[in-house]
């Protein structure tokens, strides 16, 4: 098919907003279309940045021709705008997103600007779509499209961990693993003591408290040094994670 020369406007915008993507070309997103958006490490409030969006993959990826591709980008905060005198990118009237213009649908890379909001203690999400088409003028599954979301952190925003599809990050997995191991060992040790010594739960805790209390109240420099070493390693591990 051909990319829509007028860009993603009007009714096609509503389809994107409904997370339907580009069903006029093919029904489902395809992973062979890879979208890239160049972003600095973080942004400063009020600054304007020149960004580049491009994608690869899909039909005729290495060839040149007419009506080869189109794009859509929207930012959760800040202002997107075409570069002055650039006829490849447009901002539809009354909309906040950018899309390709008639002269820009022969390409698979576009430049534009984004002005950061007045606050840089937030994380901005860029929602993007890339439409890779074969230019034959026919609608069909030969055309491929995909979507991607990019998070852009302000210089004063709290660090976040990007998690795809609800998966845990490696640090989270380590924390949960050590927590489960510690709880399991505690249950096994206390349970074994209750069975072998025929003690109640309270009696077992009292026995262990007899060993723990002197460590918590000691003034012996040797014991205090050991406690410093143990707690130091613990905080070193937590900070590293």
UniProtKB/TrEMBL annotation:
Keywords: Membrane, Transmembrane, Transmembrane helix. InterPro entries: Cyt_c_oxase-like_su1_sf. The chain crosses the membrane at residues 174-195, 223-240. This is Reelin domain-containing protein. It comes from marine metagenome.
